[in-house]
Amino acid sequence: MFKRVLLKLSGEALAAQRGFGVDPIRIHEIAEEIADVRRMGVEVAIVVGGGNFFRGVAEQAKDMDRVSADQMGMLATVINSLAIQDAVEKQGLACRVMSAIEMNRVAEPYIRRRAVRHLEKGRVVVFAGGTGSPYFSTDTAAALRAMEIRADVLLKGTKVDGIYDADPVIKKDAVKFDTLTYMDILRLNLRVMDATAVSLCKDNNLPMIIFNLNGRGNIQRVCQGEKIGSLVTA
After folding, report:
1. Which of 89, 81, 74, 58 has its CA nearest to residue 7?
2. Which SS3 state, helix, strand or coil, does residue 94 take?
3. Which pairs count as long-range contacts for 197-202, CB under 8 Å and 24+ apart, including other chains?
4. Residue 140 lies inside a defined structural domain of this protein
């Protein structure tokens, strides 16, 4: 279905039930699914959040300068990216971490052409450090990197099986959208991604699929074109 995908993972997805840090069982389960997708011939790039360690807009950062708080959040994404790299390499795949914040001892600097070359050689690429600038979320970083590497689709793994008109955990009669447009997300103020990321995808006609990451094999099913989750198009 897709030749090249960008997978957006939240930091909380790596923490699983622990709520903080990296759950070793969960991260290896995700790495196994990524390996399955890669063996199908799909080129895989990943952007991961840092909310399992620190989030710039969280309660713990309310008395901090926003720039400093966001920079701490970016460093948290580097920790998660290194954890993903280790788990993916244990699956027998080559993996590279490329950081928007230069730290040559632990990651390569982000260079678009080099990232594309890694993907063409069959390596999994993890983009760390967000956009490298404060005030931009990792959702925005995912949309930006997806367009830079010319990904066919942006896949966002969440804890629910698509986009709803309300939180399905709280509101039991919430209605799920199988397909919708980026304008629908902005008009209805659906909190699936921040508005900057949605606008980027809309302006560049990048399709996005929101799906349940916790369903075993869902990443592979999405890449095979099965209709799970919610499809967002321009």
Report:
1. 81
2. coil
3. 197/137, 197/139, 197/140, 197/142, 197/143, 198/143, 200/140, 200/143, 200/144, 200/147, 201/143, 201/154, 201/232, 201/234, 202/234
4. yes
pLDDT tens readout for residues 150-194: 999 999 998 888 999 888 878 888 889 999 999 999 998 888 888
pTM: 0.93
Query: Is there a contact between 8 and 232 (Cβ–Cβ < 8 Å)?
Result: no
Distance CA 48, CA 181 (A): 24
Per residue in 35-58, pLDDT tens?
Answer: 999 999 999 999 999 988 987 777
In a domain, 175, yes or no: no
The answer to the question of residue 209 being in a domain is no
Range of the structural domain that residue 145 is part of: 4-160+216-227
What's the domain count of the chain?
Answer: 1
Residue 162 corresponds to which tokens in the numbers above?
Answer: 């698509």
